[in-house]
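Support request, priority: normal
Reporter: lab tech (M.K.)
Component: structure prediction queue

Hi team, I submitted a job for Neutral zinc metallopeptidase from Frondihabitans cladoniiphilus yesterday, and the status page still shows it as pending. I've pasted the exact input below so you can check whether something in the sequence is tripping the parser. The sequence length should be 152 residues. Please let me know if I need to resubmit or if it's stuck on your end.
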Amino acid sequence: MVGLYDGTDSTTEHFCGPDPLPVDNAQYCYVDNSVSWDQSFMQDGYTTGKYWVYMVIAHEWGHAVVEQNPEIEWGEPELQADCLAGAALYGGATDGLIAFGPDATKEFATDLSQIGDEASWSETNDHGDSLQRVNFFSLGKEYGVNGCLGDD
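Reply from support: The job had stalled in the queue. We restarted it manually and it finished. Here are the results:
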């Protein structure tokens, strides 16, 4: 895990292989198998609610799972990462490793809706539309990792 970086700091370069890490975003880097996130992305997202950070990191972790298991037919990578995020977060809650308040489900849906293909920095068909993102996250929440396997 690379973790936090400041994408606005032009004096420090942050890379995934030869590519610079994105400003105002988070990323799983397959080159060195790391997860990183821009400080401003997390701060801005946190203003919408306290579960933003959990969701973003779990989503990027989902990319790591997909990348490290190429023998599994996962389907659309971004939506599978959302599904695995739901599985990880709610699996952790079931196991008593993390606790969510009654507002968590609504907040996760709101956050996912804000970062669908409709987001200003996202390209069409990049992450799925808002409804797809919420549905895949909910699939992971309800059925765990097994619910995330297969075609979308």
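The chain has a mean pLDDT of 86. Residues 3-148 form one domain. Let us know if anything else looks off. Ticket resolved.
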